[in-house]
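Note to self: the last two entries modelled the partners one at a time, which told us nothing about the interface. This time every component goes in together.
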Amino acid sequence: MNILKKLKQIRHKEPGIREFCIQTIRFKKFLENARALLDLFEDGREKALGEYIFDRHYVVTLIDSVIERLGMMVYDGCVLVPESGEKLYTTYDTHKRTARNLIDFSGIVKKAVSPGDVTPETSKTVDQEYQLLSEALQWFNGKDAPLDSTVMAFMKQIFLKVIQGHGSSEVIKNRSLFENSCGKIPDMGIYLIDLWKDQLALPEGNSSINDFNSIPLNHLLMDAGGKDLKAHPNPDWIAAVGEYQLSLNSLRADFQFHLVTLATGDADADFIFIFADDAAILDTLLPPGFHTENTGYGQFAWNLGISEKTIEDSLMIIGRNLFN
Amino acid sequence: MSKQPLKIMLIDDENIVGKRLKPALEKTGDIVETFEEGEKALARFDETPFDIVVTDIRMENIDGIEILEQVLAKSGRTKVIIITGYATVEIAREALSKGAFDFIAKPFKPADLRGIIERASKELRSGFLHTT
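The predicted structure of the combined assembly is written out below.
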């Protein structure tokens, strides 16, 4: 089901809650597109090792796929932070031109071949297809590429804009909106919003966490209160949940924290993503296996392609460290 | 008793495929001839039959399906393996329905193709035993 059809299924009537759900779903889509880009980079790197037989068509398709996904990520970014749209699309156009130049001119306008590019079997030069793939990988995420010219650098730029926009979003920090919708004293200090308001929907006035059939939420709280959940007078969290999805946000003005996870049991799809504006928090929060990225604004952490058991264990540890 | 080397014909209009595959397949002692044009490959097949034909599916002038049909018309015992590119799996299924032995999608490792060739080789030898 595509995202537009899904968005039509949101049954919340309150405009603020509806807007919150749309942003949550769009952010998850944004993360999925970023993940798809990382997978494409990895696919190219694997093929460049020399064990595979591929042709020019493969490399061109890889470059086209990167541009397509990057475009989807830019679109998501513009939906989440509309004021960044013009700048993001300008940079995106530059990347589209880079991609086109790579496809059109690699192997035709030959670069001087460095000694490292010479392979024993060809003795003189690398094959054009390998040359094109090598240049594409430099453009994706090359260490030798000029600063800020890579797709990865642009992805980080989009991430920062989205996270900064998310942090200042009036919808995310609107306590009264969630208080009116979820009740004044929620369990564990976490306001809960059922993303789709369908099979998880609760009777009016009932907001016990245990009544939500959300796999990642259950994992997160398994070791952080379990069945003895207590109502918390000062809610600090808002969580949007689906059966397999959880998006947890801090409501505190002085602390930006954002956790998104998908736990379907399919390792190829599942992930945990976390952002905290205080890097020290993540240092104490995370179990091993996470990739972390520091920025001047905060720290990102993610773990992709994880098994059902790992996602359960990781969420349990994060929940324990976060709430105990 | 040592096995007879297989005669393998490799057809792909992308030069790099033959260039990289030929040495990889020859490591096991088989005889490999590479072609970038279907017409030249078919003309060569008329001169001498091959045990196995490995052909790309998308090529100019003569595509892989036509190669498959013509090769099987010339030699019913030859095993034809189709190389497909991205998003051509449907065409590969069509090739299987027309008698292709198997297909492999690019990018692939030579060892993966070698596995298919070994299976084809077993069938060829078992067919040989049945007919003698």
